[in-house]
Specification:
Chains A, B: This is CoA transferase. Two copies of one chain form a homodimer. Chain A is about 40% helix and about 15% strand. Chain A is built from 18 helices and eleven strands. The longest helix of chain A is centred in the middle third of the chain and has 24 residues.
């Protein structure tokens, strides 16, 4: 194990106009891979930063998503502010934004304008519904894209109303796909000097994750059969596995899944029910799928009288795929994330100890980059506009007085 | 608009041992970015391919995830099969696998062994719980990681049991993070010739998406207040926005979100309720958050007596963030995806017309790569083991007879 720190993107400069979750997650991962990320905010801070005014809890996401970035402010409605942005983009490899499509063009600092000055620039736009197509002008947020994508239709119990997925999957699937597109373009740029215009939509990014539900739907359409159920509670999306559910325990819930016959053997052993193996109702996987209700009742009757930990231990030892449905408190406190360096508890000035996130893109042959907690609004204005772009202090003073920077 | 086809990863060779969703999604995106992906399957096919034996619907995901790959078979329990894999890895830039941690090492073809022969190889492992840490030996599937990560705890209505997110978010968040790590390592390799060992866990990849729920939890812990609710139905994870919900309509459901006062003004106009603007119960966002139940009743009373389309039109024109909760059938048929090239309807031989997925990583300054539907099991054995690795036909004949390849 080398003590060298992992910085695969060292030397890459990113101008980051991202806000809320989507683009800021992409640029967090760029920063944690060693890129220099310059986060550009309006003079009163991006929406995610200002949520701290509502409550500390609402503002916490800002800290989690903005480590290791330099923070500057710019008034992009002022011509001098636009010119500073152009100067930054001239020196950058990548510019990232997730405004509504068309906003940057209307400001005169869109892909075409910036790439006319710097043709090797990668202009990366994240959005809900893309820069083209019938929904481009529709405002997007995580919940809206969950509705449009079918994520809501596919979540929940069949006999209850549709419900959203708890995780902000549209924002984060969008954000990590945006990261993927940017790094792909950086690879191309490194080999050819060529820039790119990237258009990553949350709706496009969510669609593949509906595979388990979309597949049976498409299959039924081809075969002319009835469409499968929209949502299946905690059962497999295509109702094609059994046992596959989240079962109640004495003190919680546990997910149990048998994909192979071997898993089923393990489960019957753990349950002390060897006779089920020769019972024709349960002896094959197609039979267990047909008897899904009865299978779920059997498993449920066994899990519900024991504590989660005991069921988990027994099934783990029997080689059955299983996991407790843990509370968020258990998850956040889990030493697992600290062992892997995925969560680092950092004393954030003026806040307290915050479990900051590191990158899931783990290069295990190197050490992780140390975390630098989110900077204050405009903290790096002098360093970036003065030292990097070369504007004298008196000019920046004028700009401050005029509300171009803060 | 150039007619040139986008192949940012042209010239990159990937050996793909991926199975089911996680790694195959990563390698699909590599293939659709122009890399040459050689998919290596056991002689009876990987699990996702064999699901077609259960039903066409269950097997459909295989077609959606394996376009544009060359398909070969290898018996990795046979020494001659291992040697063929080593020869492939010697010529490759990347090897991807998502077996249980330790499997490849036990076969003698793990990261260390392969990188001793080809130090510039990027060895990329996807898994549920990482190659290190306390859960590495725990079998993982999407539902299990949803349970372990808190995704299940955060999904559903507060007064009902926890329910999984419908989309396979652990598999796909894991897969796209794996893609991101691989391309990041390719960028490093292009500049320095250096390889990498990548360890991308689904559990790590899901955690950031719980930001809206984790933030308030951490905030409450710091301030010493009570923890926020584990799940909030269709309300915002931190209960920090209102209106923010999925409301019933005459014929379905619609997501409506007001983040700014301007959204609220638009909503009251669409509802024909201008008097709400001056009512102190609703006039500010903090007030609307306090009156969340009453706000939801007001909006619900208005939406529930109209068809979804009408509510959607009215709110869209009023600039309110909104979206119908669409069924999977509506989503799959949506022309939006065809306009953007994200879904391409391809007549797959022996199956019928399948809405295959293209990459969400859209380089909008180039044309998309044409889709080549998933190859048959072992279809490219002669081309890869013969033409590429240079083994004569008679040797491959012996290997076939001995069950080393098919």
């Amino acid at each position: 194990m080398s003590a060298e720190v992992s910085r695969p993107l060292e030397g890459v400069t990113v101008v980051d106009l991202g806000q809320i979750y989507n683009a800021p997650y992409a640029t967090l991962l760029l920063a944690l891979a060693g890129a220099e990320v310059i986060k550009v905010e309006p003079l009163d801070g991006e929406l995610s930063r200002t949520r701290r005014r509502i409550s500390l809890g609402s503002g916490m996401a800002f800290y989690m998503l903005n480590s290791n970035k330099r923070c500057v402010t710019l008034n992009l409605k002022d011509e001098r502010g636009k010119e500073l942005l152009r100067e930054l983009a001239d020196r950058a490899d990548v510019l990232v934004e997730n405004f509504r499509p068309g906003v940057m063009d209307r400001l005169g600092i869109g892909a075409e304008a910036l790439r006319a000055r710097n043709p090797r620039l990668i202009y990366a736009a994240g959005s809900g519904y893309g820069q083209t197509g019938r929904y481009k002008d529709l405002p997007a947020m995580d919940l809206a894209v969950q509705a449009m994508s079918g994520a809501i239709a596919s979540t929940g119990h069949p006999d209850e109303g549709p419900v959203k997925a708890g995780p902000a999957l549209s924002d984060f699937l969008g954000g990590i796909h945006l990261y993927g597109a940017i790094v792909t373009a950086l690879f191309q740029q490194a080999r050819s000097g060529r820039g790119a215009v990237l258009d990553v939509a949350m709706l496009d990014s969510v669609y593949p994750s509906l595979m388990s539900n979309a597949g049976p739907f498409v299959g039924a359409a081809i075969e002319g059969g009835p469409p499968p159920p929209e949502r299946t509670g905690n059962r497999q999306g295509g109702l094609a596995e059994s046992p596959y559910n989240v079962y109640p325990t004495k003190d919680g819930h546990i997910a149990v899944i048998c994909v192979t016959d071997q898993h089923w053997v393990g489960l019957t052993e753990a349950m002390g029910r060897p006779e089920l193996l020769t019972d024709p109702v349960y002896s094959t996987k197609p039979a267990r799928i047909r008897a899904m209700d009865a299978v779920d009742e059997l498993v449920s009757a066994w899990t519900s009288v024991q504590p989660t930990d005991e069921v988990f231990d027994l099934l783990r030892r029997a080689g059955v795929v299983c996991a407790p449905a843990r509370s968020l408190g258990e998850v956040i406190a889990d030493p697992y994330f600290r062992e892997r360096g995925m969560i680092v508890d950092v004393d954030v000035p003026g806040v307290g100890p915050v479990p900051l996130i590191h990158t899931p893109l783990y290069f295990s042959d190197r050490d992780r980059l140390p975390l630098d907690p989110a900077h204050e609004l405009g903290q790096d204005n002098d360093a970036v506009f003065g030292d990097l772009l070369g504007h004298p202090a008196e000019v920046l003073g004028t700009y401050r007085a005029a509300g171009v920077i803060s």
